[in-house]
Each structure stands twice: as structure tokens, then as C-alpha cells.
Amino acid sequence: MSELIYKERECRAILNDRLNALEQFSYRSFNLSDRLYREVIGTHMRPFEEGVSSFPRMVRDLARQLKKRVKLEIIGKLTMVDRDILRKLEAPLTQILRNSIDHGIEFPDERVAKGKPPEGTIHLEATHRFGMLSITISDDGKGIILDNLRESIVTKGLVTEEMSQQLNEAELMEFIFLPNFSTANQVTEISGRGVGLNIAKTMVQEVGVIFRLFLNLDRA
User: Which parts of the sequence belong to the Histidine kinase/HSP90-like ATPase domain (predicted)?
Assistant: First the structure.
């Protein structure tokens, strides 16, 4: 009887040793898999600043060409972004920034007359929200005047005057992204052809990003 008890204890000890060894192996395998996963993901992720490093100079050069004063502030430079997405975002972000400089930021004397500093500011921010990449571009320019936008929509024959009065802010904003639609009074090398924001929105949506425009009128 005592021999059976001894063998039972011996078997339990061996079984416990094997279970402990199995747990340690499982733990090491999980850590190895997790490390490999992070390393693979890491090779595809790059800091946001790598994809936008040329933007500050582009903003300065274009502002100088338009005789404006504009500075670009980039927030979230170390936010990690898939390198393929980062590469595809460069062109649409460039177009949106150019549009902001040309249409949004006023000339220095106009800004001073409104109580603003002569130099306009554009903020470009990248962050992760709820597991998704969020990129925000905002400026302290004059914004979009809805009455002017509504008038332009009617003038181009896109809707009737009566219909235009029934459109809310979000619905009016959607017209800005239509092909060949522009609120510019004249066509230049920079804008006025009505293709910039349309192309930007299309390219952004191709990489799975939601494109939205929010109105923030003339904030000082």
C-alpha cells in the first residue's frame, strides 16, 4: 500500500514538473511571437515626421510667393504611421495645405485689421484615436463663408436658389469636393481649377481615411 502511495506521489511530481515546463515553454513562445510581431510591425511603421519633413519649407515658399506670412506647426511628429499610408498621404496633405495657404490665410494687412497677428498659423496634427489614425489640419484664417459658398453653388447651376436655402452647413461643404468646383475668382497656378480638394479627398479615401471638413469662421 505504501509503495502505491509513493508511486502516486512520484507520478504527481513528474506531472507537475511537466506542466511547469509546458507553461514556461508556452510563456516563452508567446513572448517570442509577440516580439516578432512587434518587430515586423515596427518595420512597416514610421514616425509621422518622416512623411511631412518637406512641408514646412513648402509652406514658407508658397506663402512667400503669395506675399503672405504663414508658419506650419506639426503636432504628433512621433506618431507611428504605416509607411505605405504615410507615403500615399503626402500628396493629398500637400494639396490641402496649399489650399489653406491660398484660400484660408489672409494677407498680413488684412489680418492686422481683424486684430490677428500678421503671420498666419496652420496646425497639422497626427494622433491615434480609438485605434485609428487621425490627421487634422486647421488654420487661423478667414474660414469658409457659407453665404458666398451658397451663392457660388447657385451661380454654377448646381441647385436652385430655393434649394440652396434648405441646405445645412454639412451639405453645403460637400460641394467643395465636387470635380471642377471652385470658389476662387480667378484661375492661377496654385488654385482656381476646382480639382485640388476633389483629388485630395479621393486619394485620402483610397487609403481608408474619412475626409471631413469643419467650419470655423474667422477665429483670431
Answer: 88-219
Task: Express each pLDDT in 165-211 by its tens digit.
Answer: 999 888 888 888 888 777 665 555 665 554 567 778 788 777 776 66
Altogether, the residues listed in the chain come to a count of: 220
Question: Cell numbers of 95, please?
Answer: 494639396
What is the domain extent for residue 22? Answer: 2-45
Same domain, yes or no: 60 and 156: yes
Phi, psi of 116 (to 5 degrees): -100, 160
pTM, full prediction: 0.71
Low-confidence stretches of the chain (pLDDT < 70) are 1-4, 6-8, 29-34, 36-42, 183-196, 209-220
C-alpha cell of 27? 510563456
Residue 218 lies in a domain: no
Task: Assess contact for 109 and 64: CB atoms under 8 A.
Answer: no
Number of domains in the chain: 2
d(CA 130, CA 128): 7
The C-alpha atoms of residue 199 and residue 207 are separated, in whole angstroms, by 13
Q: Are 113 and 139 within one domain? A: yes
φ, ψ for residue 82 (rounded to 5)?
Answer: -55, 130
